[in-house]
Structure formats: structure tokens, C-alpha cells
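Q: I'm a student working through a structural biology exercise. My instructor gave each of us a protein and asked us to get a predicted structure, then write a short paragraph describing it. Mine is Serine-threonine/tyrosine-protein kinase catalytic domain-containing protein. I'm not confident about reading structure output yet, so if you can add a plain explanation after the C-alpha cells, that would really help. Here is the sequence I was given:
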Amino acid sequence: MYKRTILCLFSVRKPVEYGMGNEVSTYSDVYSYGILLLEMFTGKRPTDEMFKDSLNLHKFVQIALPELVDEICDPVLLQTKESSTRSNGSSNRNQVQDDQRQRVRKCLVIMARIGVACSADLPRERMDIGHVVDVLTASNQSYLLEFC
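A: Happy to help. First, here is the predicted structure for Serine-threonine/tyrosine-protein kinase catalytic domain-containing protein. I'll explain a few features afterward.
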């Protein structure tokens, strides 16, 4: 049991700098943040059986964006709350639900792109955490404006 645990720990994809003897830096933290976002987005772990050879969580999401976001994300994230407003017909209710799905999909694409940008192999290619905050803030403000 002990050997199996150790093997599992070492099979997780780590930032390139871990294997090259470089100092751990904020780039490593950004990488970890990116992988965490991708795990939450897909519902898959980097150690999932489907990630073999050259396919990994980062590439899996990168290849699918943006067209296949609905196919790769955790289905729980696509669930939308049924509108509680009373409307004059199912047509209006369907339009509201479609609009809500499109907003959710747009947010998922943004989050997945951030996860991919943060988990790039090379530290200098990763998104700066300050830029991540700017994108998330702008996305949040845009999302809120759509409801007003």
C-alpha cells in the first residue's frame, strides 16, 4: 500500500521547474491554480486513466476549447436553475433559459482558458496572476451587467 501511494504521488504532472532544479516561485503557484481550475472544470484529476502518453489535463482542455466546452466540462456546471419568474408562456421561459445557458457557457470558457493559460509547461508562458485577477474582475462585472 505504501509503494502504491508513493507511485501515485510521483505520477502527477508537476511544473517543469520541479524537474529542472529551478527554484519554486509564484509561477509554480500559478501552475497549481491552473490545474485546480481545470480539475474543477472537468471533474477529472491529472492522474485520471484517460491521461496517458502525451495527453494530459492541460492538453485535454486546450484542444477542446472553445467549441467543445459542453462536452468536456463537469455536467454539474451546465445545470441551470429554472427561472422563478412567471412569464406569459413557455416561449419566453425557454428564451430566458437559453440566455442563462449561454452566460454559463461563456463563463465556463473564460475559466477554462484561464486554467489552460496558468498551467502552461514553461513558467514564462503562464498567465501572470495579476492578469488573472483582472480577467476575473472584468468577467464578473460583465456578467453582472447582463442581469441589470
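A: Here are two points you could use in your paragraph. Residues 17-147 form a domain with the Transferase(Phosphotransferase); domain 1 fold (CATH 1.10.510.10). Confidence is low (pLDDT under 50) at residues 1-12. It's a good idea to check both against the output above yourself.
Q: Great, thank you!
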